[in-house]
Amino acid sequence: MARTRHPLEAAIESIVRLSGWSAIVFVALISLFLLKEGLPAFGEVPLASLFGTRWYPIEGFYALGPLIWGSLVVTVGAALFAVPLGVGAAMFIAEVAPRWLREVLKPLVEILAGLPSVVLGFLGIVVLVPAIRETLGLATGLTALTGSLLLAGMALPTIVSVAEDALDAVPSAYKIGSLALGASRWQTLWRVTLPAARTGVLTAIMLGVGRAIGETMAVMMVTGNAPVVLFGPHALVSPVRTMTATVAAEMGEVARGSVHYHVLFTVGLVLFVISFVVNVLASIVLLKRRAAAGRMLS
Amino acid sequence: MVIAPGSASAPALEPKIEIENLRVCYGAEPPALDGITLTVPARQITVFFGPAGGGKSTLLRTINRLNDLVDGARTEGRVRLDGEDILGPEVDITRLRRRIGIVFALPVPLPMSIRRNLWYGLELAGERSRRVLDEAMEKALSAAALWDEVKDRLDEPAIALSGGQQQRLCLARVLALEPEVIMLDEPSSGLDPISTAKVEASLQELKQQYTVIIVPSSVQQASRLADWAGFFLQGELVEWASGRELFLAPKDRRTEDYLTGRFG
Ligand SMILES: Nc1ncnc2c1ncn2[C@@H]1O[C@H](COP(=O)(O)OP(=O)(O)OP(=O)(O)O)[C@@H](O)[C@H]1O
Ligand SMILES: [Mg+2]
Asked: For a 10 Å CB count at each end of chain A, is N or C smaller?
């Protein structure tokens, strides 16, 4: 049946369409710009330097490895702390805590999620850095571990809040069905509720860790800014420098168009590619899960 | 205590569940059950029926302590299983729920495969051998008249089954635990007549071995199945007798009105 379209409806539709397309165009422009400024570095800097082990721009050493390594150590460290703690806290709030405690904790966590990272950076410098130096007996408290802990603190509220919503949305019929078969509360939580909420819990983890990967300020303030690669058990308690911190610290001082400038864009490019890949992988995982769930419900 | 007041015809029946002066309240509302006294005999089909809100589901949930989960539910009186109190705080609720299984009105398979649904209770009870688990699964699915329909798709998600199949799956899941008592709350509310007939036929089989308590979906089903029957009206047990007596010659006027459809 043909229907005459209201002019307002048509206008709204074109605005929505425009917003959608402009998002795509912006992403395309950003990647083009990154490529234009970042790719020349591969011609200007010898590959041996780019893939070396020293980042020392004044003397022409531009190794990307130590920066990537720094980001990796700090992020993986943060995930190791934040994921179990965050999911555990979400399970506690959703399934164990009495109602009144739950009603206090939930908004509290949501406020924490909105805390600006510079504030956390201050806390890190004033409290965490000396605490780490003293308890571990280190020369300096500015280490990868400090950065990881701080980032974990930043990722935690997001993980807790989103995962708690997911756990809470699991139909109570599943829980009662499980309890009626002689499962304990804990067994029900572990074997039924958590698996049923896994898509939401995974989303929570990705959002939380995603925030950690992109974080700059707080990390720059507490990790010591040493672009070195250290393997082994000492890696966590030594100073490192992440990609984001490098760009933030050095971008203001380089001459536009210089080699150093181009390499910084290459660093940005690497970050962009990494987060792109992580996002694509995440969507594939989530889409697969959703397709399976859709099949189950139809 | 006598099993059915005034029934001399009863052979010596072994009491399975003895309920004495049971009263259940939700919050400040009038009690959902009050002054309930009856004895469920072993290896018989006992039927609880009556109009909506009479407290039938509440009684089932009280018997296997699922009402513990309801905020503000208070229970007074006594319920004994094989002579042992099951309402006390020191009762092992997990074990109790394995001995008294329940199938709900709305069947909810757990969000996992058919096989895992069947294994679930047994695995929790500590069974690890795959052979034992699979044997128990086949036996339970056959007893619930579902085996032929699912034997080729055991590893598919249970939620993909039809409503009637899901109901029988939930029955099978309980049977796999080999409980002593099986309670079914309106097991054919979502079933077509053929599935209903299948479930009813398997119940007749099951009572050789198990004590069956059922809240039927209709008076017809109640009279078809009942060895013993209780008529519940607004929290009161109006009449409790053998199925034959209660459906053919009800003593209470209210029971008769309900059975003949002259109610309300
Ligand atoms: N979880 C609950 N919280 C509060 N009140 C409840 C709860 N469950 C049942 N009730 C109340 O208890 C009374 C008995 O309910 P119950 O579900 O036991 O009746 P029923 O006989 O099973 O009814 P139906 O035939 O509709 O299933 C009703 O008045 C109901 O409102
Ligand atoms: Mg009911």
From this structure: N
